[in-house]
Sequence to fold (149 residues):
Amino acid sequence: MSAAKESNTISPESSKRGPHPVDSHVGRRIRQRRMLMGMSQEKLGEAIGLTFQQVQKYERAANRISASKLYDISRALDVPVSFFFEDVDPLSAAPAVGSAVVGAEAPENAMDKRETLELVRAFYRIENPSVRKRLIDFVRSLEGETATH
Fold:
């Protein structure tokens, strides 16, 4: 086998390790954005000419995404392609620690939770900026309450 072919061959060891961290990160970012927009996997699939099962595989990083398909996804989700790579640590090729949520108590995958995305969507539907600020102040005031009760 030539050196060129060997470099493209997946070794049994690499296939056992699971998806590349960047593929997983991109899949999570697709899911986050899709859910933030209130879009189903089926709707995204229709927009990019795929089935919802293929979208599901992309989001779980079970299948890799071609550059052209990532471009199509970025257009359907109304974000630049770079959005999917935000918070990737270039040295380790993995998401930067704590990139999704700031705070010692927050789980690293809080943005993957449906309730978080629903809360964010509801928050931005509040049109009055002063009401949004009061809501933020209220939630911050509860931080100490949950630790004492």
Q: What stands out?
A: Residues 129-148 form the longest helix (20 residues).
